[in-house]
Amino acid sequence: MFGFSLIRSALCTLLALLSVSCAAAPAMPATVENEPAITSPATAQVDELSWPEQAREVLLNALSLTGVRYQYGGNSPESGFDCSGFVRYVYQQATSLSLPHSARAISQLGKTIPKQELKPGDLVFFNTLKSAFSHVGIYVGNNRFIHAPSSGGGVRVEDMQNSYWQKRYNGAQRIDSTKTTD
User: Fold this and answer.
1) Active site residues
2) Distance between CA 83 and CA 85 in Å, rounded?
3) Model-level pTM?
4) Residue 72 and residue 147: Cα distance in Å, rounded?
5) Which pLDDT tens digit goes with each residue over 43-99?
6) Residue 114 pLDDT more than 50?
7) Is the dihedral of CA 27, 37, 62, 178 positive or negative?
8) Where are the alpha helices (DSSP H) in the chain?
9) Can you give the three-state secondary structure of 147-179, one letter per residue?
10) Distance from CA of residue 125 to its chain's centroid?
11) Rounded Cα gap, residues 68 and 113, in angstroms
12) Domains of the chain
């Protein structure tokens, strides 16, 4: 079994490759190679972390769950995830925030973000069930998001420029990391 530091290093490398952004967005670095070691929420006060640090925690946590199977109503790696269960689990683990277990309810939280202002860690919403805000994922950068799809396997990264996702995009929210919800 690989050590935690090796897994974290591999995830950081994957994150760096996925979150390449243009020079116009200096607030979120494109890579994490020169950043100080990321501390898990279990050993650091989440309130003391800046949003870019929390976003990195969210992405590391989300990417570490790649491949976990889809399960309607699922909310843990052991049982599998549905889309909102995945987002809820990741945010709880990475930021100690408690989000509701429904994509529509999650879409009512935070600040609405225009598509051109998306940053890694933001939540992206889609109409996949002929109902607005019926699917949610986590933006990872470079027009990609990670989610638990309703079919075809497990948690995975998708391209938002794919025609399927482009047609169904509903919007994005940035969750205020200083507020908890029930």
Assistant:
1) 83, 135, 147
2) 6
3) 0.73
4) 13
5) 333 444 566 888 999 999 999 999 999 999 999 999 999 999 999 999 999 999 999
6) yes
7) negative
8) 4-18, 51-64, 83-95, 103-106, 163-168
9) ECCCCCCECEEEECCCHHHHHHEEEEEECCCCC
10) 12
11) 28
12) 50-182 (3.90.1720.10)
